[in-house]
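User: Structure tokens for this complex, please. No commentary.
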Amino acid sequence: MKIIIVGCGQVGRTLAKELIREGNDITVIDTSAEKIKAVTNSIDVMGIVGNGASHLTQAEANVNGADLLIAVTDSDELNLLCCIIAKKEGDCHTIARVRDHAYNKEANYLKDELGLAMVINPELEAAEDIARVLRFPAALAIEPFAKGRVELIKFKLPEDSELVGASVKDAIAKYKYDVLFCSAERGDEVFVTKGDFVFKAKDVISMIAPPRRAAAFLGKIGLKGVAVGSAIVVGGGEVTHYLCDICSKRGIKLKVIDNDRGVCEKLARDFSDVTVIHGDTAEQETLIEEGIEHTDAFLALTDNDEENIFLSLFAKERCEGKLVTKIDRLDFNDVIQHLELDTVVYPKNVTSSLILRFVRSLKGKAGSNMEALYPVVPGKVEAYEFLINDKTPIVGKRLCDLKLKDGVLIAAILRGRSVITPHGLDTVEVGDRVIIVSLVLGITGLDELLKK
Amino acid sequence: MNFKMIRYTLGIILKFEALFFLVPIITALCYGEHTSLSAFSATAGICLFLGYVMSCQKPRDMALRARDGFVIVSLSWIVLSLFGAVPFVLSGAIPNYVDALFETVSGFTTTGASIIDSSVLESLEHAVLIWRSFTHWVGGMGVLVFVMAILPLSGAQNMHIMRAESPGPDVSKLVPRVRRTAIILYIIYFALTLILFLLLLIDGVVASDAKNQMGVFDALCTAFGTAGTGGFGVKGDSIASYSPYVQIICTVFMLLFSINFNSYYLALRLKLRDAFNSEVRAFLLIVFVVIAAVTVNIFTSGTEGATTLGEAIRHSAFTVSSLISTTGFATLDFNLWPEFSKLLLVLIMFIGACAGSTGGGIKVSRIIILVKGMGRELGDLINPKRVKKITIDKKPVSSEVTRSVNAYIVTFFIIFAASMIFLAPDGGSNGLLTNFTAITACINNIGPGLDMVGPSGNFAFFSPFSKLVLIFDMLAGRLELFPMLILFAPATWKRK
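Assistant:
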């Protein structure tokens, strides 16, 4: 597909890199010649220096022949304008990143009236991610599939767990819970967990199950599952704003600390039930005074990655509760992983995986509809949700008869109200939703998972 | 440095060289030339074997950094030339290896400077002659660009290679993928060469003089030489003995091949305004003015062979096109022309063709930037606080590009001066003009210069050391200086 990306920031570059890997032709537009040069030096894309909202620049990028324009500049308004013009000039699909909460409630209006295919709000998505782990703090990350009926839960196996040393087969036999283990990360290695896989302490395990079943199972193996009742949030940016909105509905008590008087006043005005503290977040005393040692959860959500990491490291020493760290820059991912910061949220990763899913579903129109895509381990393992229709090649066959590629796992079948953990004799029927975990990346349709 | 990747790429290059040898091998088979056949087949065999050994193991880390790209390009050209020279020695056409290397480098870099005496030339076997011309065609658009168009190499960082091999201050892609850009460029190149070849074949129909009419072989070699803006011919007197029709066709196509290939792509997509950009306009203006001036000069001074106005226009147009496109074909010995014409010809040798063409020289776009930079500097003296940006086609030229153009010019003349010094031991007998124009002709990839290296002379009389200096100049000129210089920077080879 021919795709134009406006804006060469973190997200623009990550997207270009991922989309190139999946065989698309990318043209990037940015006003900064230096940024364009840096991108074209490292990625096989065409770069154009100019204002992406100018129709002449878009014409230079050949918007008429493009299938999709993605606007991810820093400015919401510019992004929307880019999309409107691209729609008029080239009649292509358009995606805009819109972050300001003032527009948030109007996302549907924007989509319908301006003809946008998708409006992405990474901060909102990040806030929802955080809210999910607050509900179930034992998990590192929770990704809902099929509107939340099953969840992909990532957790780290504690050293004293009964599961350590057991194989997948043993675990299923012993606990008799219908959960499906998908993958395990051990250091830099990633495994798709087949029956004879043996768990070790500190493995990061991904598992798919309906929420209640998952909670019960994790309780058994020694991970506590009590929802967070109160949390300290440092930083009052957009993510915090959305999070306050979600938490006040759920009755989670938040205490937000920020350096900036204006930000504090705004939050206090919008959310009367949130305790807002105006204080220096870099001071240990402030944090201790506000009760970091006794809180259920500590969320570092400032706009500064380094500050977030330091705050979380400090909180790790002082508090027993759940830790959440927001990281915006993706460059030092590996190092951050080694710090063992509990849950780390990457709003920018959220943006690119949403767009990737959209691009793949555009490509793989016939046969199967991809409903969701989630990078379980970015760049190594992906999880997909497909809606099965009568054109899907695997309809009606028993799973044991399917010749799946290596490293592909059918993780769950959702039929009507029931969630089936698949076994060899199960079949896939029209109308089912199928969740698949795979080491084979860049899938656009179910047929690509079968051996040729 | 990614040494494994360099080894791997050089292996691929050798395999491609074996493929290129098929052209002279087939020619040798057609004409039944046994010495050439065995010489070319043996070398092809060696290349194939070495290439296979070097590239059988694919490196795990395929990533190329900017300097890897430069080193790969310059080493590829050197390796290509080292092996390309072997058949000349084996077949006995050029017994001395340094001479053979000079001839091959001159071919690949599309220079066309020869060490073969024009009287011997026509007695050489066809396979040798076509290999000389074919190296022009291969070198014209770039060997690695060709490899890139055919093989899906690592992908992203190929831009480093393309940038190092393509002539001009700034390389832009035509389409988002490097590989498809390379394919498009080669399609345009191939199509233009084919049209030229067919037009030259028609000569057989129109030519009245049966002796000098173009056969398939001559047409093919001339087409290769013109397309790559090289200049090796198959006749001792270059293009002079062919019909005026052939000379006019060559004039037109030498100019066509010295225009930025991006323009053809844009023209095909009906973006005529973009295709006919200021570089192309400036190029055509220079060509027109110089042709007019030279025509008047040689016509009024009654130069031999240009006694009628028609002849004067034809010869001056041919010579100017030949030299500004850095081809180096000749119809008349311009060494015998008046001083004013010779001066103009030497000047346009330095200007050269458009960026992104097959021609050499400093490039018109660089000249434009330099002249505009000069204007800006002058303006700054008059209004010291004025803020002004250099623009081309209403687009601002980044200060990085102007900086690199300035650095290029400085480097160009430093290499030039150093070469003059290295050639000085030879200079006592040759004279300053010979040495000066010999370096000019090599570093700008033209071929013939003036005086002893004029169209009727050759480069055979230089000492082996001088020849090596000129070989370096040719490679440096073709690869835009820095890829060759980077080989000599110690920091390039350090792992840390």
